[in-house]
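Box S2. Input/output pair 1.
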Amino acid sequence: MPVTDVRHDLDNLTLTITADFAAPVERVWQVYADPRQLEKVWGPPTYPATVVDHDLTPGGRVTYYMTGPEGDKHAGYWLVKSVEEPRGFSFDDGFADLDFNPNPDLPVSGNVYTFTEHDGGTRATYVSTYASAEALQQVLDMGVVEGASGAINQIDELLAS
């Protein structure tokens, strides 16, 4: 299992997930840079993603929806802030309706994904920051730790293929 540590900090409004992969930084980067690879790991195993738009450049937008076991669809978007290929990128991640209009009733997180060499492979650090402790608690209650961990743990299989 790639996920080695999960910490949420209500004082600093952050959720940090650390994962280790037995692949070079450049290969892990490709998982996020290629929308077809991203679809295989964005979303937990029972909620596979479909990436609709994928512009992983500063100012770009990524849109996606996840399809649940009952056929229910849940949409979201990224607003890309910065990109330092292959070392990482930052983006705002929000919930949306099926036309990809932001849902103002659900939290938006600011995310920084960093990929560094570690023990012959890659250590990925995923940091999400929320506007308030209530917003962080809301996504924790929605199962973000289990969902994100399940999604990240799918990356090993993709890297091995």
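Box S3. Input/output pair 2.
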Amino acid sequence: MAAVAVVVGLGAGLTAAVPAPPAVERGPAPTPASVTAALGPHAVTTAAVRRAEVTGFGGGTLFAPADAAGGPYGVVAVAPGFREGAATLAWLGPRLASRGFVVLLVDTLDPDEFPTAWAAELLAAIDWVVADSPVRDRADPARAAVLGHSMGGGAALEAALVRPGLCAAIPMAPWDPAADFAGVRVPTLVLAAEDDTIAPPAEHAERFYASLTAPARAYALLPGRDHNFSNAPDDVTAGLVLSWLGRFVDGDTRYTRLLCRGTLSAAVTSQQDTCPAP
């Protein structure tokens, strides 16, 4: 596994700004191997969401655990990058759904629009999943997260800014004209790529992370990756994303040890944190 530099702030405030839903532990204790494997224990159903069937966003692709009896499950809305569609992040759908999340990869109404508009679409997508989607019986309205790449990463930050009740936000190689996200109280994991020349970390991801005051926040710099690292399967990315969602969407504290002290992978080369003991 490639090396990754991680800076984590998970101190006394391992909670969101609003009361968290009760914790859920799904299956055996997570390990580095289990969070980086291609698939988890759940069979997955997949459905296309047509633009004409929804309002507030442009449709997309819906992934969910096939077994409703194991739910309800947390909901994750995922935004693509500039002029891209949901298909560019297709690998994340089964990765997350097979671990017990309902995932909607969102097609945006206007692929040229800015992150603030896409943030509204991410939130509209979550609302549709929990209220009107064919898997609404499996979706937990109290457990929702946003994730995005590039301008979609900016959208994830913007969505967290306006909906503090979200359980987690994960911007990947985020791009946004704004630089101040001090108002975000949602647990936020910022993923950056060392060789990113489109949204250089020093100008985007690092600045966004530095502005955060959320009680739970983390920044990871992935070496050897360019701006589009999230558009193809990546075990380090998957492990960090799944651990963050498991910790803050499901509230499963067993994931803390994977996020703290460099235990997610022996390839973590440097880390600063204020994490509590697992």
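Caption for Box S3: Residues 1-5, 10-17, 264-274 have pLDDT under 50 and may be disordered. The longest strand covers residues 139-149.
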